[in-house]
Amino acid sequence: MGKVISTNIGEKVTIIHNGVEKQTGIYKYTVNEPIFLGQTDVEKDHVMDRKYHGGIDKACYLYPSENYDYWQKQFPSLKMEWGMFGENLTTEGFIERTIRIGTTYQIGEAIVQVSQPRQPCYKLGIRFNDPKMVKLFSNAPYPGIYVRVLNEGFVKAGDSMVQLNEPSESLVLTDVFALLMKRNNNKGLMMRALSDPFLAASAKKDLAKLSAV
Fold first, then answer.
1. Distance in angstroms (rounded) separating the CA atoms of residues 124 and 20
2. pLDDT(123) > 80
3. φ and ψ at 81, to 5 degrees?
4. Rounded CA gap, 7 and 31, in Å?
5. Secondary structure letter of residue 172 according to DSSP
6. How far apart are CA 179 and CA 91, in angstroms?
7. Is pLDDT of 69 > 60?
8. Residue range 166-194: average pLDDT?
9. pLDDT given for residue 49 in this prediction
10. 67: which residues sit within 8 A by CB, 6+ positions away?
11. CA dihedral defined by 193, 25, 45, 68, rounded to 10 degrees?
12. Are 7 and 37 in contact (CB under 8 A)?
């Protein structure tokens, strides 16, 4: 059983990418109050790129606090605070390699279902002030966890994460992440992922493109 150790909300921030101004909500920081997990996003959070973030399958992003030590060693001069990865919930005892797609959890008032690992984009490199972060993230087994919200509700720091159901036929998050990042081309795993009714539609679309190559 895991627990929430920090709730994080992002403000709208303007960044420059390839000479073009863009806005992002990846700069998230701890808030000392419960946050409301809605069906398509976290209330009061700023999600600027709806094509890749938010929505039914990516309503909330969780990141394990245990992973921070690994990244601090990669970036020793960087001050890392909860929310550094753009996560709304920083967790403890909730590790990607042990979590299956489709698993449901009660977190505070909300019930959530694991939908996919995070696929990094250039904004993560901007957040870390190093474009190499995207490749480093792609090659590490620490993608974090996207969830869909089955029952809306408030979640606060200290809330337990109680597993309700686990589909034994689904892949674990790190296996799906390895497929998405092209670190594993096992056709058996690919077919299992593509046929998984709980895997996010956008992740399936990306995997289908890879399987066709």
1. 17
2. yes
3. -115, 160
4. 6
5. B
6. 24
7. yes
8. 96
9. 59
10. 142, 144
11. 70
12. no
